[in-house]
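Lecture notes, continued. The same structure-token format from the folding unit now serves as the input rather than the output. Read the line below as a description of shape only.
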């Protein structure tokens, strides 16, 4: 019987006590103690184990925790220097990801609730009798949400002071996902208010707090130009570029192979490696832990032949990346095409991400993509005071996000900005030449990498009809003996309906490109497929009196459109018929 996989488990105690499969990362504790950082900021992409790591620290250091949780784990063999610190400190744990609400009032309420929860969790200090009347009253007000908003700036520092007065011990402060409320507030219009709140909270908690033993903060990005960490000369930053802690956020190759072997999936190693490996943190090569666990969960038992998926695509916040992509110029689009083709680009890298200046420099796009896990650096060089990184897509999972989501974002933006009235007029009137010209016009500003897949062109064509008022479009509907690409249906059955079939053309063996003749042949083949597989049958059954047939061939940013009208006849000869350009 296999151990259960820890899908979505972020609490260390729950993971250990319920005997979930655990990839032992407890030597992170040893490295943290050895490095003696007073305030430690760790930035890693989403879903790379930051929350679980912080909770592991809480379970190790916090007073009153069960030491049996760490029995048999690596930290227990590290030496008495480290194990002597187990269970010896008060710990304050704040997660700021609850402030991602989309509403300013609820965001600040979520943050105040987190603070009130920690006061309540440490309310044993009230029972000691060590606090004076004023301190006791103030403590109760923080616990009960009865303080003015500006007082929250000193809340954590005050809690540390109360704890030390009672216990004589300094407090360990753990703050998870510190940048989530900043990103959320940026998009929801209260960014300046949130910056002031986080800055004042951090200044008091981390800079002028002599009751602090040490602090660990996690997030995706280093936000510094807004002065979130103003004057923190005790801050130690650990990003994906820092040489320390590389193997503790993500799975190493050895750890992944051990997991696959345990679950009887060692023959899937190459597949997992190509899809989820490839991140470089601190000089160490690691796998995406979330995606690896999800892959294993989907493949255990009778599902071992289930195809790999992009699990990470829908877990990360894409809003800023999407916004930057939609603003991209043609040079940037060309660079994204190169990346999707497994090429590389070189860009200046700076870790000081600034939401307030995000749209001032296109290089912000590459920094966001790099530090949030959409790209990896395979080399760096310095020039004057600027660092340049050679960037590539890490793996097939991330490439899927580019080839699907990012390309679609380009397409969505093109459609939003375009006047498609001429396109619709040409199509509805059976004007193949005009329809072709309008499609080509919209293809030109699009991203030109299509991976020679009909799926992209199908999505591109479907997107052109979004928001059309006078007809409906059905995609990949069963009709006759197969599935047509697109059916275009007018409101009235007395108006002309259309079947559209799409072909992606690739160069023949030994050729570097395709010819106009290749394009015409492919468009004719699309028309023939409509006939042979009886794609018009569904429209005939619905009573449409006139049916138009479009065969469209694509190669990169060019298309050919062939058209025939009427019901297909038995053994109809398509070649040379109809209206088409050539």
């Amino acid at each position: 019987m296999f151990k259960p996989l820890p899908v979505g488990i972020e609490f260390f105690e729950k993971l250990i006590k319920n005997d979930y499969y655990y990839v032992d990362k407890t030597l992170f504790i040893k490295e943290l103690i050895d490095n003696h950082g007073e305030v430690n900021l760790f930035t890693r992409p989403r879903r790379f184990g930051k929350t679980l790591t912080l909770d592991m620290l809480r379970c190790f250091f916090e007073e009153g925790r069960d030491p049996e949780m760490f029995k048999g784990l690596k930290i227990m063999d590290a030496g008495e220097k480290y194990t002597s610190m187990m269970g010896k400190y008060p710990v304050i744990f704040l997660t700021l990801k609850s402030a991602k609400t989309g509403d300013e009032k609820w965001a600040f309420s979520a943050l105040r609730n987190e603070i009130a929860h920690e006061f309540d969790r440490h309310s044993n200090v009230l029972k000691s009798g060590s606090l004076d009347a004023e301190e006791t009253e103030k403590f109760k007000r923080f616990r009960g949400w009865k303080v003015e908003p500006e007082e929250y700036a000193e809340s954590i520092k005050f809690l540390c002071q109360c704890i030390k007065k009672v216990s004589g011990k300094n407090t360990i402060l753990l703050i998870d996902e510190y940048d989530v409320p900043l990103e959320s507030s940026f998009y929801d219009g209260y960014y300046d208010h949130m910056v002031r709140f986080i800055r004042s909270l951090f200044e008091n908690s981390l800079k002028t707090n002599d009751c602090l033993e040490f602090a660990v903060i996690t997030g995706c990005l280093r936000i510094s130009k807004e002065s979130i960490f103003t004057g923190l000369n005790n801050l130690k930053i650990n990003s994906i570029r820092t040489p320390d802690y590389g193997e503790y956020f993500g799975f190493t190759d050895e750890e992944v192979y051990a997991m696959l072997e345990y679950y009887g999936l060692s023959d899937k190693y190459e597949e997992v490696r190509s899809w989820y490996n490839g991140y470089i943190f601190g000089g160490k090569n690691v796998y995406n832990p979330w995606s690896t666990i999800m892959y294993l969960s989907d493949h255990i038992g009778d599902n071992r032949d289930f195809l790999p998926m992009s699990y990470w695509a829908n877990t990360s916040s894409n809003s800023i990346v999407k916004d930057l992509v939609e603003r991209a110029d043609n040079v940037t689009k060309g660079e994204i095409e190169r990346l999707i083709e497994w090429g590389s680009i070189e860009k200046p890298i700076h870790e000081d991400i600034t939401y307030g200046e995000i749209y001032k420099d296109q290089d912000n796009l590459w920094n966001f993509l790099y530090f949030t896990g959409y790209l990896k650096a395979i080399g760096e060089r310095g020039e004057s005071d600027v660092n340049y990184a050679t960037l590539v897509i890490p793996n097939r999972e991330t490439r899927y996000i580019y080839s699907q989501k990012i390309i679609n974002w380009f397409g969505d933006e093109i459609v939003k900005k375009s006047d498609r009235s001429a396109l619709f007029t040409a199509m509805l009137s059976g004007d193949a030449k005009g329809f072709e010209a309008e499609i080509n016009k919209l293809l030109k500003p699009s991203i030109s990498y299509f991976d020679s897949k009909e799926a992209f062109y199908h999505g591109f064509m479907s997107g052109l009809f979004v928001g059309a008022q006078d007809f409906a479009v059905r995609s990949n509907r069963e009709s006759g003996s197969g599935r047509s690409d697109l059916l275009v249906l007018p409101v009235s059955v007395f108006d002309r309906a259309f079947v559209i079939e799409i072909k992606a053309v690739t160069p023949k063996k030994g050729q570097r490109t395709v010819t106009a003749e290749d394009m015409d042949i492919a468009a004719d083949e699309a028309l023939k497929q409509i006939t042979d597989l009886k794609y018009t049958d569904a429209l005939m059954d619905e009573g449409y009196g006139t049916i138009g047939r479009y065969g469209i061939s694509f190669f990169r940013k060019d298309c050919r459109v062939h058209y025939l009208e009427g019901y297909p006849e038995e053994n109809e000869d398509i070649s040379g018929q109809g209206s088409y350009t050539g």
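Point for the exam: Residues 12-238 form a domain with the Rossmann fold fold (CATH 3.40.50).
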